[in-house]
Design goal:
The complex is a heterodimer of chains A (181) and B (475).
Chain A: E1 7-14, H1 17-29, E2 35-38, H2 46-50, H3 57-83, H4 96-122, H5 136-139, E3 148-153, H6 161-170, E4 174-180
Antiparallel strand pairs in A: 1-3, 1-4, 2-3
Helix pairs in contact in A: 3-4
Chain B: H1 29-39, H2 46-72, H3 87-111, H4 121-142, H5 168-201, H6 205-215, H7 222-255, H8 267-293, H9 302-333, H10 336-347, H11 351-363, H12 371-374, H13 377-404, H14 419-442, H15 448-453
Helix pairs in contact in B: 2-14, 3-4, 3-7, 3-8, 3-13, 4-5, 4-14, 5-6, 5-7, 7-8, 8-9, 8-13, 9-10, 10-11, 11-13
The chains are: A alpha+beta (181), B mainly alpha (475).
């Protein structure tokens, strides 16, 4: 590791989403791995520019939905056909048709929890402490307002303060600063 | 192969095909944040207090009416044999129907890539949540002994008996509670980036802590956005079958019974169309004044009003078709009870309710065919209120008129609500508006990050987003 322990990374500002995207392509091609761009809204095409793979949130939602459907069917069978069966209107004790609507709703309910929970788990959120959230340039009319940032983190194996600075400058980054941990 | 370089810039769009922009006057990204977040910052304007105080007093009326009803019994309402469902279930179905527009805007229009939804989805989702709250009160208290409400949950009662899942009333419990929960999840997830905006702008310690806590440490990192967008897409995909199923299941509460006028297969699609119709009516009723009071004309443009009127027209026409088809099937079925039920709707003692419904739900929305009507805000506002009056009478027609004269003339009766029914219903408006006014006072009522995302300066392939005139190319 180069750089001192209490440096989080180097922050550069870009004027437009297009500039940020071109810079991201170059940073990706330079072989950096611990870096990110920070934008007020998701920029279309940025995933490709950063070389990110398809998000895995879908798996969380899928297994959530599967759990929901199974829970619904098993719960209704257990309650109305196994644990305490009561004849109502001559209807069968258990039928997949009458058990379907609640199971369907539980599929959606658990699937939705899976999607939101999966998003938070994959993003390692909630995380109320972050070095960037202490940085005035980043928070005051910054990444949540209308600014576009790129940060290469000190944890990156290729991190070297001078070469990162030079790369970001050559890509048109402005206000290049070191962010402390 | 020729060596001619292919230009990366698309040819200019012909003038007549150009769409009006979603955000007028080329507002900057910063302006969007300042303007929308500004509504929830600083001192509350006078009009807000003028709206909030009466709403809150009405809410207190609701509390008093519920306390009176619970401590006395359901007899304080007008429900009696043979009309065992009255204003309670009418208002339940009416409120839950209103909620449907929020999910339709946030989920179905998202899947259909209708980008105009970004300006209205947050407020419509909030409306959904508060409408479902109002709706949820009725089934809970109409059972009479609210302390037995837990019988609805999958918990064995004191004799070890479980709830009975062969009844649509149990399906309804799952549908409505899932609908409420998923609507809240969807709404909250959409709020996370905007809560980060509020956190970064907060000037007092308390606001920093509260917005910071609920923003969950959102930084706007693209590695987060990619998971976020996927989760949002999946939630939209899950909410779409949800919104269609909820009102279908509500309609099964009626359709699975054998009462003439209720026992029809057309109910699920007809209820869903009606729900969306009334929901858009309420969105227009809420947003037309708010747009003016909060100076949002550049974000909620006339184009937004125009398309919402068109959705109202389309769903209103589906509802009109369903009314006609119900009559046809009643005649075609050959069942004298079925035929009587429908003749009784149009010509029986409650004929005025039926014709008021037809006027408000079938005739009134047809005015939206005219562009001049869709562009006249006063007219749209009045018509949107008529739509909701009409949809209230639709539930009145279905519930009260069907119940009051069923098979045996010995079982006939005439239903009248009591003053408690009326005051409870007015009280739910108090709850609804109190919640909505608090929402717009403390949370961004328009999705800031989503509106930014549909501006041209957010598009890296648009000249305003920094694209080079001849295309930058990608590595």
């Amino acid at each position: 590791m180069n750089g001192s322990v209490n440096v989080f990374g180097i922050l550069a500002e870009f004027p437009t989403p297009a500039d940020l995207m071109h810079a991201a392509e170059k940073v990706r091609d330079a072989g950096y791995t611990r870096w990110d761009v920070y934008t007020p809204f998701p920029v279309h095409g940025m995933d490709h520019a950063m070389g990110l793979k398809n998000s895995k949130v879908g798996w969380f939602a899928f297994f959530g939905g599967l759990t929901g459907y199974t829970t619904g069917m098993l719960m209704i069978w257990f309650m109305n056909a196994f644990d305490y069966p009561i004849v109502v209107g001559g209807k069968p004790m258990f039928s997949p048709f009458s058990a379907f609507p609640p199971s369907y709703e539980l599929t959606i309910l658990f699937g939705a929890f899976g999607a939101l929970g999966g998003m938070l788990i994959l993003n390692r959120l909630p995380r109320w402490h972050h070095p960037l959230l202490k940085h005035p340039r980043f928070i005051e009319r910054g990444a949540s307002h209308d600014k576009f940032f790129l940060v290469i983190e000190a944890r990156d194996p290729k991190y070297d303060e001078a070469s990162v600075r030079q790369l970001l400058e050559s890509l048109g980054g402005q206000n290049i600063e070191v962010v402390e941990e | 192969m020729s060596e001619v370089a292919i230009s990366m810039t698309p040819p200019p769009v012909p003038k007549e095909l150009e769409r009006p922009p979603l955000v007028l006057n080329q507002r900057s990204l910063g302006w969007i944040s300042d303007h929308i977040a500004g509504i929830a910052e600083g001192k509350a304007p006078v009009w807000w207090w003028l709206a909030f105080i009466p709403s809150f007093l009405m809410f207190l009326v609701l509390v008093a009416m519920l306390a009176y009803q619970i401590s006395t019994g359901v007899g304080v309402w007008g429900n009696h044999h043979p009309t065992m469902w009255g204003w309670d279930i009418i208002n339940f179905v009416w409120w839950i129907g209103i909620g449907h527009a929020g999910t339709l805007i946030s989920a179905i229009l998202f899947l259909l890539r209708q980008r105009w939804r970004t300006a209205v989805n947050r407020a419509a989702e909030a409306m959904t949540i508060f409408a479902v709250m109002c709706a949820g009160i009725y089934p809970a208290v109409h059972v009479g002994r609210v302390w037995f409400d837990w019988f609805l949950f999958p918990i064995p009662n004191s004799n070890g008996i479980w709830p009975q899942f062969r009844s649509p009333l149990m399906w309804d419990v799952f549908a409505v509670s899932t609908y409420f929960t998923v609507s809240v999840l969807f709404w909250y997830m959409g709020l996370i980036p905007d809560l980060a905006v509020m956190r970064d702008r907060a000037r007092t310690k308390l606001r920093q802590i509260l917005y910071g806590f609920f923003a969950l440490g959102w930084t706007g990192a693209n590695r987060h956005w990619t998971n976020y967008e996927k989760a949002y897409l999946i939630l939209a995909g899950l909410s779409t079958p949800l919104v269609l199923s909820v009102h279908s299941i509500v309609s099964l509460d009626f359709a699975v019974s054998q009462l003439p006028g209720w026992h029809t297969t057309i109910f699920p699609p007809y209820f869903v169309a009606g729900a969306i119709f009334s929901g858009f009516g309420m969105v227009l009723t809420l947003l037309i004044p708010l747009r003016k009071l909060c100076h949002l004309e550049d974000i909620i443009t006339m184009r937004h009003i125009d398309v919402m009127c068109k959705v109202t027209l389309a769903t209103g026409s589906i509802v009109g078709y369903a009314y006609g088809m119900e009559f046809f099937i009643a005649w075609y079925s050959g069942s004298p009870f079925e035929r009587f039920a429908f003749m009784n709707r149009a010509l029986g003692p409650y004929w005025w309710g039926y014709w008021l419904m037809l006027f408000c739900n079938v005739a009134v929305p047809q005015l939206f065919w005219f562009r001049s009507v869709r562009q006249n805000l006063w007219l749209v506002f009045i018509l949107s209120i008529l739509v909701n009056i009409g949809m209230w009478f639709e539930r009145f027609v279905i519930i009260v008129i069907s119940l009051h004269r069923e098979f045996l003339p010995a079982n006939w009766g005439y239903y009248m609500p009591t003053w408690v029914d009326v005051a409870t219903f007015l009280g739910t408006f108090g709850l609804f508006f109190t919640m909505f006014l608090l929402f717009m006072r403390f949370l961004p009522m328009i999705a800031i990050s989503e509106v930014k995302g549909v501006t041209p300066q957010a598009d890296p392939h648009h000249p305003l987003g920094g694209a080079k005139p001849h295309g930058g190319g990608h590595g």
